[in-house]
Each structure stands twice: as structure tokens, then as C-alpha cells.
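Researcher: Please translate sequence to C-alpha cells.
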Amino acid sequence: MEEDDRSIAAPEGKNKAIDYDKLERDVDLQRDVALKEGKLTEALDALLGLEKQMRLAADVVGTRTVAVAILKVCHEAAAWKLLNEQIVALSKRRAQLKQVVAAMVQEAMKYVDDAPDDVIREELIKTLSGVTAGKIYVEIERARLVKRLARMKEAEGKVKEAAEAMQEVAVETFGAMAKTEKIDFILEQVRLCLDSDDFMRAQILAKKISPRAFASETVEAAEKAAAAAAAAAAGEVKEEGKKKKKGPREEGEIQPAAPDVPTLVELKLKFYELMIRYYTHAGDYLEICRCYQNIYDTPDVKADQERWIPVLKRICWYLVLAPHGSMQSSLLHSTFADSHLLDLPKFRALLKLFVTMEVVGWPQLQADYGAEMEEEKATVFHKESALEDLRLRVIQHNILVVSKYYVRITTARLAQLLSLTAEEAEKFLSDMVVEKVLVAKIDRPAGIVTFGERQESGVQLLDKWASDISKLLDLVETSCHHIHKEAMVHKVVLKT
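Model: Translation complete:
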């Protein structure tokens, strides 16, 4: 039966059936000649002759059997240099079949861990990388080899070389690679870029991953559907009373992820941890807060109190540090309403200071939360500028409070409420006006500040007018419809 099945795998138009049992006996004989009698060269010459016969006959099964046997003989004889030479030579043979090249690469990848030292291991990886370059049918193997090579470079302290090697492979275009393995590969690219201080490239690479990719239901459903389609296309097919066996890889089939690829939840956490590193460098407190919020919203994190408590604390700190804005205000109020915050009364009180429209005293805040700031010395307040930014946010909050309760106020009174000098109060107020956080005018000779309501811009007014016109036309259309309906009910002829 096995012989019949293999004969079916041969190309159409081939009349002569190959005796695969005899072929396997010949291969085993040459292996014994190489390993037991020590005649490696003679055995390889004989196997290469068999490989040529199978290749010129365009027989996939036979060529693959002999080619893999050649690599096994070199490996078992510990002839690593000869192994590299045979891999290159066999892959460049005239009319070599792509299934054979794929089988050779997959077989040789098993030998990487068996290499006696890092030099031989690196040489084998580079040989396989060269063979797989530009070949779509072994693109997944190439990606895994490059990742392995990058780890070796990183272990040697050559982080920049490792990052450059990883960037040569664009896994986002690989249709047969599992989504989790793609994400893991791109995250490794981002991590190496961050480690080599290439923040611009790290941002570009990170944009290849959509946060929606971490919706486990979506990913699992897509991969299950793809796997089911591949199984239906590549499964056992009855043809003329015989079964066709599944090949080593069918087109469109999604390959299972490598064993060392983390789960989707672990990849999500890794992604946001890397983005926190990037946004920390950029000094974007609001984006850091959003990253921590996504980590906090992960079910595995929320289920473990030891994990969500430090995350929620940092969310509170970064919300306070983030500049005032609509998104910051929305996150501030939603976090303040979180039931978990009841277990952290001090941090709930911190958010309440900024949710409530009351003046916050900076010295008092420092005294009350000095110990908590010291706890986050390695993360939130690892830069001296973070403390200055916190003081700035307190001042800005106080100015917003004053603008709510006062229409006109003297500069001296404003400075007194803010616990600043008149010059400092004027400077901070001017900065907020320039940033369009609020509307105010300063009469310097009179020493009076006048707060005003925010006026709509020309674009906003135009949008509002267009919306009103649209509503008016809808109302006219509805009215006309009702008029015609009543006219038809009462059989009244409308004059036009």
C-alpha cells in the first residue's frame, strides 16, 4: 500500500514505477559504508548518484529520501563542514525540487542544537539562511533561523547586529506563519531596537501590530478557520478508489507556531511593556497610562491581586502626570469609579484631589504622598523631571479651578491661591492659554486676569451649521411625507 501511495505522489505522465523499498535498502547500505567502514566520501558519491537519478526522474519522494539521507550521514559522521557544503550543493542542483529543498532545510534545522560549539552552530545557521533566502516555501524556516542567529549575537553583546539581522525579515507578509509567531517575531524586533536605542525604528515596527490582534477570540477563530480549511484541502482525498496522502506542506496551510512562542496573553503583556519603554523615552505620560490600562484590563492580571495592585497604582500616578485634556479627563473619571480603587484608599484620595474642583496644595501633596513616590522611584519617578511635571500638573489644575469660580481676578490674588509669585503665576497661565487649555486675558497695567468661555473655531461652527441644515432638511422631508399621507387618506388633491 505504501508503495502504491508513493507512486501516486509521482508526477503525471510517469510510466516507470520506482521500487522505494530497494531505494531505502541502498540508502541504508551506503550509510553503513560511511559510518561502520569509515568510507564517507565513497558513500556520499554513491548517494549523490542516487539523488541525481531520482531528481532527473522528477520523483519527489525518492529525491527527498536520498537528500535527507545525505545530510543524516554527514551529521552522524560529525562532518560539519561537509554538511554545510552538501546543503548548498544539493539546493543548487539543476531542476532541484522545492519539496526536496524544504525537507533538507527542516532536517538540517534539527542539527543546530547538536553543533559542538557556537562557531560551527553559527556557520550552519548562516548556510541555511543563505539557502532559504528568496524562497517563499521555506520563509518560516528562514525567520526561525534568523531569530536564532539574533539570539546568539545578542548573547555575544552585539545587540545592534542582532537588531539588523532581525529587521531583514518581514514576517507580516508570511501567509503560512501562525499569527502568534508573527507577533512574537515583531516584538523581538521592537525589543532589540529599544535595546540598541533605535527608538524611531522601534515605533515603526510596533505599528505593524494592531491592538485588535490581541483579541483572543478573533485570533483563535481565524486560526481555527484557517486550520480547518487547510485540513479540508490537504486531508485524505479519495481518487479512483485510492487515497492521496498529505504532503509535507500544502499551499495556504497555516503552520503551527514554534514551541517557544508565548501565548497570546503573554504576547499582549510583552507588547504593552515594550510600548511603555518607548513612551517613557518619549515622555508621553498619557500613552504610558493607556498601556498600563490595557495591561490592567487583561483578565489574567485582574484575577491576581498581586499583579493588578502595582499596575493600578501606576495608572493613578500617570493620570495625574498626564497633561489636561479630554482623554485624560475621561480616563481620570473612569479610573476613579473603578471598584478596585476602594482597596487603595490613598490612591483614590489622590485621584479625588484632581476630580474635585478644589485647589490642591503642593507642599501638602508632597508630604502626604512622599512614601508612595519613593516606592515608585524605579518606575514612575525614575527621572527628576517627573517630580517637576507633577508640580506643574498641580499648578495647572489649580488654575483651572480658579477659572471656574472667577470671571475676573487680580494677579496678586491668583498668585496667592497658587502659592506662587506674580511672575510665575502669569507665566503658567500664559502657557495654558497658548496650549488652548483655557481662555484668558491679562491686563498687566491693572494687574487683572479675565477668564472667558472657549469660543468655537471656524471649522467647528461650520460643522455645527451643516449639522443643523441636515436636521432641518430631514424635518422638512418628514413633514412632506406626513402631508402626502394625510392627503391620500382623505383623498385630497394637493396643488403644486
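Researcher: Any highlights?
Model: The two ends are 87 Å apart (CA to CA).
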